[in-house]
TrEMBL record:
Documented activity regulation: Activated by a monovalent cation that binds near, but not in, the active site. The most likely occupant of the site in vivo is potassium. Ion binding induces a conformational change that may alter substrate affinity.
Cellular localisation: Cytoplasm
GO biological process: D-ribose catabolic process
Function: Catalyzes the phosphorylation of ribose at O-5 in a reaction requiring ATP and magnesium. The resulting D-ribose-5-phosphate can then be used either for sythesis of nucleotides, histidine, and tryptophan, or as a component of the pentose phosphate pathway.
Designated name of the protein: Ribokinase
Alphabetized InterPro entries for the sequence: PfkB_dom, Ribo/fructo_kinase, Ribokinase, Ribokinase-like
Residues binding substrate, per UniProt: N10, A11, D12, G38, K39, G40, A41, N42, E135, D238
EC number: 2.7.1.15
Gene encoding the protein: rbsK
CDD domains: ribokinase
Gene Ontology CC terms, in alphabetical order: cytoplasm
């Protein structure tokens, strides 16, 4: 089976500063790094490292060849990533010595997707997984096409946008969101997660684990997080989602797939970085706490 991911691809440009700049202030950074990021890219890498076949649907600018090569290196099928006019999406991340940060995000190529980017879904089979987030265009169109083909439609509703969620809610089989996003969705729709018209709703709660709502059965099951010492939570939620989908794609029951994803996320928060440091399946399976 296959996971098709309509997802963002970003360059994370990280600058270490003594403090965040005030208006009009110019600062020299003490460190600089460029890494692969974007919620879509993170999820594709996580799914691929969890031993799923993952096909990424997305776009970069002419400056994004390195990002495509890195995705390929990590096991992602990159044949359908297209090059468009304009720059690759990127985030300028300023981090000070106290760990505070300020981020400027430019969507770039991620918002330049056209109907051609969805053509690979014609290859999908009944039961394949389609996942998307809120960092690209064509969300509704992709979900409609995937649903019509009998795919399992999964949605990570971040960055949160109530209108975007409403537009795709009737098409979803699986919704993954964090506790803050769940509260925002409840305020916007008047429905708690367990009342949503989606078969499976997973609400992640950071160090408090996650809740799985099986709305057909009317049941809720809580999963504890593993006890680790976190150093960087960036990308942990994306890692969780990618591993969850990979487990489901391989036929795992939901509870088993959540257990695998929980371990992957726990290992992820012990590392600095995003897509480049997502653990592989052997590391996750070997994790013992």
């Amino acid at each position: 089976m296959t996971v098709f991911n309509l997802g963002s691809i970003n360059a994370d440009l990280v600058y270490r500063l003594p403090h965040l700049p005030a208006p009009g202030e110019t600062l020299a950074s003490s460190e600089f790094s460029r890494g692969l990021g974007g919620k879509g890219a993170n999820m594709s890498v996580a799914a691929a490292r969890a031993a799923a076949r993952c096909v990424h649907l997305g776009a970069v600018g002419a400056d994004g060849g390195w990002a495509v090569e890195r995705l390929l290196e990590y096991g992602v099928d990159t044949r359908h990533i297209r090059t468009v006019d304009g720059p690759t999406g990127h985030a300028i991340i300023m981090v000070d010595d106290a760990g505070e940060n300020a981020i400027v995000l430019h969507p770039g190529a991620n918002h330049e997707l056209t109907a051609e980017h969805l053509e690979p879904l014609a290859e999908a089979r009944d039961g394949d997984v389609f996942v998307f987030q809120n960092e690209t265009s064509l969300q509704r169109e992709g979900a409609e096409m995937a649903s019509a083909r009998g795919m399992r439609v999964a949605y990570a509703a971040a960055p949160f946008d109530a209108d975007a969620v409403r537009a795709v809610l009737p098409l979803l089989d699986l919704l993954v969101l964090n506790a803050v996003e769940a509260a925002q969705l409840a305020e916007a729709t008047g429905m708690q997660p367990q009342a949503l018209p989606v078969r499976d709703v997973v609400v992640t709660r950071g160090p408090d684990g996650c809740d799985w709502h099986d709305t057909d059965a009317g049941t809720t099951r809580h999963f504890d997080a593993l006890k680790v010492r976190p150093v960087d939570t960036t990308g942990a939620g994306d890692t969780f989602t990618g591993y969850l989908l990979a487990g489901l794609d391989r036929g795992m029951p939901m509870a088993q797939a959540i257990g695998l994803a929980t371990k992957a996320a726990a290992l992820m928060v012990t590392r600095h970085g995003t897509a480049d440091v997502i653990p592989d399946l052997r590391e996750v399976q070997d994790l013992s706490l």
